[in-house]
Amino acid sequence: MAEPAPLLSIQDLRLAFGGLQVLAGVSVSVGRGEILALVGPNGAGKTSLLNCVNGLYRPDAGRILYAGEEITGWPPHRVAGRGIARSFQLVELFRHMTVLDNLLLGRHIHMRTGIFTGGLYWGPGLREETVHRRAAEEVLDFLELGGYRRRPVASLPYGVQKLVGIGRALAMEPTLFLVDEAASGLTRQEKEDLARFMLRIKHERGVTILWVEHDVQLVADLADRIAVLHYGQKISEGAPAAVLADPVVAEAYLGLAGRG
Amino acid sequence: QEPYKVGITAAITGPAAVEYAARVETFRAYMSKVNSEGGINGHPIQLGYEDDRGEPARAATNAKKLVEQDKVVLLVNTSVSATYKPVMATVTEAKTPLLFGGGVCPQEVFPPANPLMFCTTSFAAQIDSDFAVRFMKEASKDKVRLGTATMDIPIARIGIDAAEAVGRKIGIEIVGRVTMPPGTADFTPFSSKLKDAGANWVFAWSPWSFEIGPYEALLNLGWQGNYMLYGHQQPIDAAYPRLNRENLYALVGASILAEGLPELKAMQEIAAKHGASRLDVEGGVAAVAVHEALKACGWPCSREKLQGAMSGLSITVKGVKGGPIQWSRDNHFRTEQWYKVYRWDSARQRAVTAKEWTKVDVAEKLKELREIIK
Amino acid sequence: MTASLLEVSGLEVVYNHAVVAVQGVSLRVPEGRLVVLLGTNGAGKTTTLRAISGFLGSDNAEITQGTVLWDGQRVGGLQPYEVAGRGITLVPEREKIFETLTVEENLATAVPARRARGESRRESLDQVFRHFPVLFERRRQTAGYLSGGERQMLALGQALLCRPRLLLVDELSLGLAPLIAGNLLGILERLRAELGLTILLVEQNVAAALKIADYGYVMEHGRIVYEDTAPRLLGHADIQEFYLGVGREGRAKSYRDVKQYRRKRRWHG
Amino acid sequence: MSRGTGSPYLKTTYPSDAALLGTPVRRFWLAVFGLAALGFPLVGTPVLMDLLCRTAVAVVGAHALNLVTGYAGQVSLGHAGLMAAGAFTAGILTEELGAPFWLALPAAVLVGALFGVVVGIPSLRLRGLYLALSTLALHFVILYLASEYQSGRGFATGLLVPRPKVGPWTLAGATAWYYALGGVATLTTLFCLNLARTRPGRAWMAIRDRDVAAASMGVNVAAWKVLAFVVSSALTAFGGGLWAYYLGFVSVEAFSFFLTVEYIAMVVIGGLGSVLGAILGATFVTVLPYAVDAIVNLVPVPDRVHTHLFAVKFAAFGLLMAVFLILEPRGLVSVWSRVRTYFDLWPFRYHPLKG
Amino acid sequence: MQLLANTLALASIYILLAVGYVVVYRASRVLNLAHGELMMLAGYAFFGLVSATPGHPLWAVPAALVVSFLAGVGVYATLVRPMAGHPLFSAVLVTVSLGILLRGLVLLGWTADILYPLAVSGYKNVPWPLPGGAVLTTIDLLSILMAVTVLLALWGFFARSRLGIQMRAAAENPLLAAQRGVNIHLVFSLSWGISTFVAGVAAILYASKVRLDPEIGVIGLRAFPVALVGGLDSLAGVAPAGLAIALLENLAIRYVSPLLSDVVPFLALLVMLFVRPWGLFGTKEEIERV
Ligand SMILES: Nc1ncnc2c1ncn2[C@@H]1O[C@H](COP(=O)(O)OP(=O)(O)OP(=O)(O)O)[C@@H](O)[C@H]1O
Ligand SMILES: Nc1ncnc2c1ncn2[C@@H]1O[C@H](COP(=O)(O)OP(=O)(O)OP(=O)(O)O)[C@@H](O)[C@H]1O
Ligand SMILES: [Mg+2]
Ligand SMILES: [Mg+2]
Question: From the CA of A161, which ligand is nearest?
């Protein structure tokens, strides 16, 4: 029985900064339409792994295959052009732009407007703006951010900024969504909203999600599978219940708090 | 009484103020002397002045204001050569005579002269250089090994080019040349290049700082040769006693105070009486020229009439220049240029003459130069 | 309650001369206690903490009303370093470390607010490294390259080196793995006992925070809407539902339960 | 702080929401302003007209600098050099080949664009001041070339550039120039406004705010950075060409580093990253020295100390600029937006708390 | 040999000026474009003091330096402090305005004439022959000595106190530094004071050797690339950068073209920047990590 080919397949990825081995041969794959959660202690290399997929870091060794194509070492904008979006741990929004402009920037890869059509703002330039404005508005609506449309993001509370970060990625209409700690700093109530959005993204939009998160309950409830990273190595992978029950994981990652 | 309106755009502040501020002050002092004596033909002179800071764009605006709005009959430019073109552009459109009274004389006043443009200053890059180089050859017993120093502005480079061409022609060895960028902080590297090239004469033709700077650096390096520069009256007067060196030659087109001539002393008193803190001869000469021109124009004086009057004017400034400044139809520089060379006598603590006033026929000289430089 | 070390009353903060972020906020933190500040996003928690620790004149934020009393004295109009000099130290939500300095240099910037009893700088530094061994390993690394959690540890380490009397922490366990986050609360509790540290905490891990806290405030839309002792807060039905994720029936809710795509009312800015 | 253009609920289409003149009030004020501008030559003195013409040229240059520095966040100190490139291209083509202005100006734009590629490339590696340094190098190189040309061809004091001609008609006189330059400045403004609110502007701002994130969103950072330099330089060179034609001459000394400083002052005083700011800043910096002159001239002084007044004016200019920056470090647009907020909120002082 | 001597003399002036840029930049990320003019001001203060107290020229030196230090602190307190937290560009422009203001004031006070403080003081700048046939003057030797002294003193100062680190912290994030208890205003005023103090040293030497006029501020601009090449926030970088630029400049004058003497070193350094985009010893100011 042939397994369907995974959407993203990471093979034996290695990355070091100076003497520090951040990723020491990690292999992980994400199937189409699934949510794979990536957890692990601080500094385990989770963000670095996302950075490698996304092209911000160039791995020292290993391969990254996306939809059958090798994308190892591609520059980030090319990776993004293939439909891989991401959100960031420290938000990384365009602070002086409005929420709407942040989302419209997410539409960048779908737009063609150049200097002349843009400068004229007439004919094709105007039509394109309108079409993509509509798409951005849909995302605003979806994430219930409509009221912040014209606010510069720097003046928004942290929780809203996290959502804008997700919205910006969604505006790209990605196939694969790399999420880095979307829930940190949110209250329970807001996490519930987030959970709702993520499930809808998965089910309604059919987006595959690779999700780095520290909130174990959130991850356990939502993810299809969990992989655990520890000092640059994968120490466990599988269904949430099984992984969380794994004593190795409990010791390295969860400690006492995890079971509480 | 209705006045004669004269406008002046000058580098009163800004980087070039070192050169021009004193010139404008003297000019203004002289004008107020004329007014205090009842003006010209019973009409006072109304002087409108604007500071251009040596910036072309400001000079353009100043010229527009003075010519188009204040309706002056004569515009005077006492500023850096960079401001010439914009001012020329304005006066050409408005057909107003323009006098270069303080800066270098531009191409346009030499024959065939632009009908609107006149010049009173002695600085004429190429002719100055020619005279200087010939003097060096004449004054020195040994073979002249000439080094040249100039600031990197187009007009100064043209002068030095001429010096080298003439030098080669009359059998002087050109051993080195340094062109110094305007922001130069330390002249020593330039001077040591000239020294190491073995120059026994150095000629400099630039704004003052770039003439005296390399000289002092050469002194600091222990150089013993002779140095010749264009003697800007005001600063050379200060430099001679301060440096107290005998090998510093100053080529001038106007006398300097250090020589102690009574005519200049008188001029200095007039300036002081009318509020100029110091006397600048070129400023004074320009003022005399304006005075003479307006006198010749009579009353009423239109721009056209003034231009006509100026085209045949002859201005004598006794004791200051070796001969008159004479303008003709196609020569608005002067038909004859007079030069003198000073050097410092440290025993007597005053400037002495190294070469007395000498006449150069401008038209002929230009023809000759054109051939040499080609 | 005993005399409060920190007393905020009637605080109002306006951003950009136009947006009111916090209005009429009053809260008290008694000496040696641990108080938590809860609230949804945009409630004004960060703004309140920043108001206490002082805005730099240029932040485009100003306190338009209310007072902040510290040990009986007003600290309202003081420069942040003067506030810090009196023993109030803030661990901010963002921009909490100097990215271009190394970890070691980051720790060296802290100016202790008071002389520790017989404890040298070296020893306090060792103490920080004991709490956060990772920092020791990374001590020569440029701090900007630290991972999210490592940054948080560094920020806390810096704050502790200031030897504060009052520690303000904005989002304590932000980005920290559960193991460390759990330990950290333990460390804070110990510091409070050992050094007599007073703590005002903003924390989303409400269950754990309330367990060690003495008192809590709940903020919403710029105002304090509810306050009580920690145990009573833990038992409050709304807190249970909105902050602890305990359903009406008293069972822990699963995040999957939100799948019905229910729309919740939101108050937008 | 950027704010909504009126309430979105009154708009039925996205284009109308994004329209520049979305409300009747705005249209009204624009019409008033436009009429005033058109009628100005009836009352303007030659000096005022000249000042406005120079402001219009400055507006073009300020927009150009604002695109690359304000929007794309790349500091450029090569502005004067690039203006010189444009001015000299126009000047040389007219002088040497007798080219008409409708050929010389586009050529200037083209040369500017080429130089834009040259300055843009270092921006891929260098940041901030270090990048600024490399653009300054370009300034020196261009001025060196221009100065070699000038002394090599015997134009020691610069080149005269004749008035532009179309057929029998010559562009001359203050009024004609006023309309011509005013029109050009208006079109440039529109062009920049449109760039700013469409894809190119967003890409540039994203690079300015956080280039790593921009790259992750699919923006080809390198290409867009270079493009920003190209567009800006082309526009700068265009401004340089206009300068040459309007002032009627070119010479190296006119494009000193101080000119760059003036342009930077324009965009900063106006408010970085704002089209309106560039206009306000260009006006402010061009007019301020003359305003200072006018004010100082009101003080009666005896004739003999008159020359000292210029030093006073010089100092006063510096002082005023410093005072302005201290009072309004975010520039004229922030004054503008404060005034607007005030009227938006009236009769309240603040946005009331919601919820 | 003379080439090396010239290099040392020029480098020492460059170093003394570049130090000022570095110290202010390091503490506040503000680029002080009035540095040259502040130096000029110190020169005029020196001239004023020398002429006011005939017969006691040496006394004027420390007095001028104190004036210079106070001027720096004053500038910070009145002009720069209000700019804290506002766009850096504006702060930089304030310094540009300050430069214009100072030039105007000096014009008013002393006119545009060239002045020679050394001539007033009665001392002489005499050439000293060195081994190898090179010549340096008294003032050249003094400048070299001062450059070395200043660098060592500052290095000692920053290495011993934690002030160096606090300055860098304050530069990156003043609010956070303040929250950590760093008295940022003290740090900033001190850095301005030190910067102008050292500029004062340079001014006295330069004005004594070359001249004094309202335009000598431009050499401040020439020392600026030195600071950049060394790494704007790095004191250690100033010395090698100063030497390198001075050497390149001398080489360019001698072997390439004097005309290009201010451009050639500049271009050479640009090439270097491509290899080390943050200067020889500078630290990276932007972190590319998410
Ligand atoms: N560009 C870099 N240069 C040097 N070290 C780096 C760099 N990027 C990451 N590191 C180091 O690699 C390690 C892993 O970092 P990473 O951000 O991947 O951790 P993480 O698993 O995301 O941790 P956290 O949960 O705290 O965010 C950390 O110790 C970090 O300091
Ligand atoms: N710089 C700013 N300019 C304008 N408004 C601001 C600014 N910073 C915060 N605000 C506003 O102040 C209000 C309170 O924000 P604050 O950051 O204090 O909330 P918070 O409770 O800390 O939220 P979170 O849990 O998301 O961090 C919000 O409405 C926010 O939009
Ligand atoms: Mg991470
Ligand atoms: Mg907050």
Answer: 2
